[in-house]
């Protein structure tokens, strides 16, 4: 994979970077905006915006903003929870993670990237998500050790994505009334986004919903940016992903890899849509999967939005038909994908990585993720080289990988401590023995000296006695 070289130092950063990927998009898309009058989507804006995008791929002047229809309900990635909210929860004891957490809502592209990051962390966050929404707050309250971190860096990332979005999108409030309206809203925004891409050469925050025929599941996501190449012979739109950085550094390889997975997933979804639009567009699967009625009348706001977008639709089925017709005209996405890293400080470009789409590689990556989602194996942990990720994980104190390591560490410390205690006891014993030996030796020497001195005194006494006797003898003799 080719990428532009950079002298910017590489740094492993916190999970802010990862979290900001998701939070930035989710929040940017869900952020409430004051509804404004619905604009004519393709009429030039009163203040034309001609902007150069600071990338080395062809920058595109944006002549008009696209109307982004919004409602107070969650983003496309939450369409399922919106649909499920008013439906009775079914009890399915032995569900897979996919059934338990993503049934009727599709698998998000962020699910794939998070799974690629660490399957165990993904599993933890699914159960935490469920726990948060559970009134009784069962045992997971005990299990979860941290609070979701939303740092300054994440907030700055969110703000930047909102800013990028607002450069080309004009939010228009729509009062949706049904699940069918909600799905139609997303499809209309896709149609408008694609029109903007074709006419203006650029679109951002493009919701995409695509059927994975190989796995038989719906996948959903939101494409950061698409650009039409300037070269005349090239008609395939380029997918661009912008990531903001708190520090002026480029991320570690595993973080870049995660970004590549994300972009390749979008191309995979886009190309899937295009490939099946003509003959076997999965309309029935769409209605069945999300339990939607194609004949249900759309709300008035949405019917107006459709007219403003250049087509007439009364029901969700009509919108899906337009969606399908639109997809028929689409070219495949460009094989060249662009991942940009810009500084949060001044929005300067830190690195731009261009790489080629690898169909076999991404299918394999998605397949590995599906094994986890389909319950074909247990969640795996990060490998040894990537254990630094655990340092930024909210679930580190409860993760078996970490607790097992902690147990190992404790056992090792315990062993070392016992060994040290034994050594200390042995040292004390040796010191006592040495002192004892020393004392004994000193006593022995003192005793020996005293004996010697006494012997010498005795000799002196004997000598003095002999001399005295001799002197007394001589006295009486004289
Ligand atoms: S502590 Fe590490 S291995 Fe465990 S869930 Fe978190 S990132 Fe994954």
TrEMBL record:
One of its GO terms (cellular component) is nucleus. GO terms for biological process: interstrand cross-link repair. It comes from the Eukaryota. Signal peptide: none annotated. GO terms for molecular function: single-stranded DNA 5'-3' DNA exonuclease activity. Residues 378-409 form the 4Fe-4S ferredoxin-type domain. Belongs to the EXO5 family. PANTHER family: EXONUCLEASE V. This is 4Fe-4S ferredoxin-type domain-containing protein.
């Amino acid at each position: 994979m080719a990428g532009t070289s950079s002298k910017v130092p590489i740094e492993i950063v916190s999970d802010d970077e990862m979290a900001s990927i998701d939070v930035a998009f989710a929040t940017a898309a869900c952020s409430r905006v004051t509804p404004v009058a619905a604009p004519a989507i393709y009429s030039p804006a009163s203040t034309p915006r001609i902007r150069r995008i600071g990338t080395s791929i062809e920058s595109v002047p944006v002549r008009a903003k696209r109307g982004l229809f919004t409602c107070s309900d969650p983003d496309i990635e939450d369409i399922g929870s919106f649909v499920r909210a008013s439906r009775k929860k079914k009890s399915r004891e032995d569900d897979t993670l996919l059934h338990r957490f993503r049934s009727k809502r599709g698998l998000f592209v962020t699910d794939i990237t998070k799974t690629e990051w660490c399957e165990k962390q993904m599993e933890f966050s699914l159960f935490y998500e469920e726990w948060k929404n559970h009134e009784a707050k069962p045992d997971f309250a005990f299990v979860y050790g941290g609070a979701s971190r939303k740092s300054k860096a994440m907030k700055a990332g969110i703000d930047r994505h909102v800013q990028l979005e607002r450069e080309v999108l004009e939010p228009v409030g729509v009062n949706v009334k049904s699940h069918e309206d909600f799905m139609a809203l997303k499809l209309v925004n896709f149609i408008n986004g694609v029109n903007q891409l074709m006419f203006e050469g650029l679109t951002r925050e493009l919701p995409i919903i695509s059927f994975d025929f190989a796995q038989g599941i719906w996948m959903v996501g939101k494409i950061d940016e698409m650009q039409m190449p300037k070269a005349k012979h090239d008609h395939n739109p380029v997918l661009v992903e912008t990531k903001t950085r708190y520090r002026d550094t480029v991320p570690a390889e595993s973080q870049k890899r995660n970004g590549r997975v994300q972009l390749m997933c979008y191309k995979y979804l886009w190309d899937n849509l295009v490939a099946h639009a003509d003959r076997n567009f999965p309309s029935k699967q769409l209605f069945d999967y999300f339990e939607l009625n194609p004949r249900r009348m759309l709300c008035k706001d949405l019917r107006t939005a459709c007219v403003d977008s250049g087509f007439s639709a009364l029901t969700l089925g009509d919108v899906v038909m337009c969606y399908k017709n639109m997809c028929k005209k689409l070219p495949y996405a460009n094989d060249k994908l662009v991942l940009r890293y810009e500084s949060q400080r001044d929005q300067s470009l830190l690195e731009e990585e261009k790489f080629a789409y690898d169909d076999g590689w991404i299918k394999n990556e998605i397949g590995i993720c599906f094994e986890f989602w389909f319950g074909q194996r247990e969640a795996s942990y990060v490998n040894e080289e990537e254990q630094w990720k655990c340092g930024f994980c909210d679930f580190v104190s409860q993760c078996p990988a970490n607790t097992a390591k902690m147990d190992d560490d404790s056992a090792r410390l315990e062993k070392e401590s016992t060994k040290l205690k034994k050594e200390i006891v042995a040292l004390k014993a040796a010191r006592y023995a040495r002192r004892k030996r020393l004392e004994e030796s000193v006593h022995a020497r003192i005793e020996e000296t005293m004996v010697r001195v006494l012997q010498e005194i005795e000799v002196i006494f004997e000598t003095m006695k002999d001399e005295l006797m001799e002197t007394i003898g001589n006295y009486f003799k004289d």
